Amino acid sequence: MSNTKYIFVTGGVTSSLGKGIIAASLAKLLQAQDFKVTIQKFDPYINVDPGTLNPYEHGECFVTDDGAETDLDLGHYERFLNVKTSQANNVTTGRIYQSVIEKERRGEFLGKTVQVIPHITNEIKERMQLLGESGEYDIVITEIGGTVGDIESLPYIESVRQLIWDLGKENALVIHLTLIPYLAAAGELKTKPTQHSVKTLMESGISADIIVCRTEHELSTELREKLALFCNVKSESIIQSIDVDTIYDVPLKMRDEGLDKVVLEKLQMTPKKPLDLKPWNVFLDKFKNPKHRIKIGLVGKYVELQDSYKSILESLIHAGAVNETEIEVVSIHSEHLEEGNVAKPLDKLHGLIVAPGFGERGIEGKISAIAHARAHKLPFFGICLGMQMAVIEYARNHVGIPKANSTEMDTDCHEAVIDLMESQKSIVKKGGTMRLGAWDCELQAESKAAAAYQKKTVSERHRHRYEFNNDFADRIFDENFIIAGTNPETGLVEIIEYNDHPWFVGVQFHPEYKSTVSDPHPLFVAFVQASLMQKAKK
Ligand code: GLN
Is residue 413 annotated as part of the catalytic site, yes or no? Predict the structure, then answer.
């Protein structure tokens, strides 16, 4: 057995309290004391992965190097810690059941009735310990999705109960994140919902070791003591998580509250070195004290939901900070652009991103926005579908193929400049079957991309079924519209650029999945620089 210690993070009272950010912030504090830490998320829904969910359901789908379609919290883990996650870091009820049912069909439980306890809980426990048993990590933090008391969370909570028993109290602890609501009419913070949710956990045999309280107002000493008394913890284990302007402040707030200290003490661990958050503070300082300010338009069809483009928004924060630039992201609904004047919403911008997406809705708006950006020399960054639409725009408006389209939008299209990949044509199942995960891309030396990356070959993450149709390469590409990156194995076009322009780059992959606080993505950094120049010109 390895010496790995386990921390479980559960949630109570309401959803959306930010368990992922608390888990990532704690991990950051532990990492800054030289511990090797990873975070995994267990989600109670029955989808095998979030790949088949639309962003309105569960926000963005994050993709790992090994091609797992995962919960967006894994994005926070990677951005905070700068360590890669994988398939093993995100498990859903669907995956657990799928695996148990496959075992049953293979006859692994022959003669036995397969039940939630012990078969499902054993499968959960095995997966909870998978990363820990690799010996790579000192500490594994496991976030349990959902809210304590939900029917669907029960098998996870029971598994945590059993695991703590197996591992021993000194090797495992539970952090319970709750809400302390403020009743404006009474002018008071209320502890009762937290008391109830801690009690619900106790009914399942788990006593929370640390309670992190989301709150809009400071918790007084009396309130902390009251909570401690009713929730069966010491008052130093009541951790206040007050609302902050940026999620990147949360590690500092958690340090001030002593979360890492209480955790280490309970796990009987001593810091390997004094806490060092210098690089984090350098980033925060630049982020909070910008010298410049620009407006970037983000065109998409899910813009009303912040979480849909989480990684893009965070990548802009990272790239903004290194450039000491505050970025105001102007969300533009692609369908609204279809209704009329494109110039009006785009004129005030210094750069334009056209977001990834699926399906036909809003694509004509995206194409009009790209046409405007190309003609008016507005810095443009097209991501996945955004790149595909840039090809269609050039084919229609410059090359003279008015019916150019993608077969995703028009299955009978004769001029399919974007078409289903050969490898996709026989695929009928939707789940986990796209071109996923990390693929190499060789860069054309004389390109904006090569200038940004300062490399010849890069590896980027993918999530798409359609691609540039190479049958059209000779007709479409010219001295101004170039292929700036290709996949060496398959010859697939990965990056296109338009040269008669300050910065016009479209990428088939998703650079946003690889930007972190300590490693902002070179393409986002270069795009922000181009947008800054655009502002200077204006
Ligand atoms: N819908 C497009 C495809 O499947 C683009 C996908 C994306 O933007 N992630 O190829």
Answer: no
